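Our consortium's second objective concerns turning raw sequence data into structural hypotheses that experimental partners can test. To show how far this objective has progressed, the report includes one record in full. It was chosen at random from the queue rather than selected for favorable results. The single chain below, 356 residues long, was entered without modification.
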Amino acid sequence: MNPITKRKPTYPIIPELRDYLTAYNRETELPLVYEDLKGFRESIPLRDPNGSDTLWETVIYDPEEMRRLNRDLTEIYAVLKVDGDLSVMQHLYVDRVDFCTFGNSHPFRIRIVNSYNDNQDYYYVKKADASRVYGLELEHLLSPNRINYLTRGTNLVEEHISGIPGDVFIDEWLNSARLNPVRVAKELVKFNERCFIRLLGDMRSYNFVVDVTPDFEGVQVRIRSMDFDQQSYDGRKNFYLPQFFRENSSLAVFCMERLNRTTALQYQREEQSLIYRRVQISRDRLQRLLAVMGDDEIAPGENVKSLGASLGEHYESTAFDDCTTMGELVAESLEVLSRNAGSPDTASSKQVFDFR
């Protein structure tokens, strides 16, 4: 897989998407905006416990400005968590504000601390990008994970997604005796399928986390996307299949060593069935989102044409030839899923991991 050679532009939230966000309580008033956080006085590189650079910087504000930010940022946390009920937030304070210049969104990360027990939580303030908003909504509707986020104008506030960063999981957990390797391989297949069907790109190891949950019999794992900037932008089909990224090669090998093709296809079909059920449950909301996305230009026309041709070949369907936007490609991908529901040998089951 070739690296991204050109930074993806930020796409504005169009009025129709704003109406959708308002209808489903995503758009709300907030006491500050992204630009308010850019007035920091200095910054200090933030390093992990091993002394390595995290690509984040802790920013420092003037004391009076920090007092104002503490009030406003705590209020935003209350809006995000408990619909703005400040009565249960009086014991919280902002312990740290971090800034990251890596990636497209240049986020601020806010660390909130409970003064009674020192428990920590995080959330993010970012510049809103329509691609990311579509990605967050599709994750909320089509994945097993619920996503908590808010928008205000050109601003985006996101809840922290907990888990072990994918690259750390590969280095320190993948071959751990604490994990059932077949369960891990199964989740890799299912994650690969979730990304492909809804066209979420760039899921290399540092763009997802692994949620490890003790169970009554062993340990369960779930892979969760945490970066949605590359929702339906790139024109290459393999960009939407995590298995093909160099950073994920050890995961793909791990999977192929532990699953035969028949079992892998079974897990893939399980995930297709689950997505199909989620489509049915959220049909009205999803149709409204896809209608807006279908009229929104969130990728160059040549990317849409290239990806449509690849998807048409993959699914053995000419329907993708008529798609003129990425939103229409996502809608057609889900339509193929719906048409093939219950079929034991669908076109989408012809490629998961290469077991040849």
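The partners drew two points from this record. The first strand starts at residue 42 and ends at 47. Confidence is low (pLDDT under 50) at residues 1-5. Both points have been shared with the crystallography group to help prioritize constructs.
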